[in-house]
Write a structure and sequence with these properties.
This protein has 299 residues and is mainly beta. The chain has 2 domains: 9-155, no CATH class; 164-298, Porin (Beta Barrel). It is 0% helix and 55% strand. The protein is built from no helices and 21 strands. The strands form 3 sheets. Strands 6-5-4-3-10-9-8-7 form an 8-stranded antiparallel sheet, with no helix packed on it. The protein has an 8-stranded antiparallel β-barrel with strand order 11-12-13-15-16-19-20-21. A hairpin with a 2-residue loop joins β17 and β18.
Amino acid sequence: MVLRQIGSIGLLGLALAGCGGGGGGEGEETVRDPGGPDGETQAYRILKSTDNASSTLAGQAYRTARDGSGTVLLETATLSGTINHRTGATTLADDVYSLTDGDGPDSVGFLSDGAGGAAFVSGLADDGGTYEYVSTFIMGYEDGGSDYDAVGVVGIATSAGDVPASGSASYNGDAVVDVFQSSGQTSMTGDSRVSADFGAGRVSVTMDNFSARDSGGASVAAPLDSIAISDMTISGNGFSGGSFSARSGGAATDLTGGATLSEAAGGFYGLEDGIPDEVGGAFAESGPDGVLTGVFIAD
């Protein structure tokens, strides 16, 4: 199967400039699990670990579905799965499709199940960047006569019991955003800043410093200066909801013409010094005048 070009396929090649969480010598970071019996430890293995062990995967994405009539459905989706660190065998699943590649990813992070499902997971590539626990991904498949594409983040999620109930943390990283309007598609890459207030149970994200290209790959002026998603609600090891705002030319703007869909979801990944080490998420907003989709990832 050939993955259709949706969103910013350039996110797969992002030089993700996170500083990483400093996993241990055998590709794992061992932390105290406050929910474990008798204080037993829990290991958070990094995605690129080669330990003889498996880890559970979790993630968030925005997903499009195109049926035979050309109708497009846009929604957010939750991802689950597993990875065997020694063999590379990987399963990625949403609520529609489950993809399993028993051989694991190739050198560029490509996975295929031989039955029409395929995915790229940038953090599983040989040069998968420096985020240790979470990665951008794109997955495509066919089901029930519709073509599906999901773009988002996936990784080794922080245990819900390890998410603090107080304090705060800040994360800095990358963002990929696509704007679809009648005039065409603009793909933007930029920075993300994520603030988590664990005591208040809220997460906010700001994305800015964008550079942009049109659908032909030519550099163009970015249509937005910044995007903010404020006051997403923490639940377990994830967060969702919140309110969207965007600015262009120093003023508030709405490229969708009044959103009829506005969804965002993210999660915490790994653990360091009792704090989730990395974060990531996906969002989608659409209205009569356009569609805004994106992914953020930070540590």
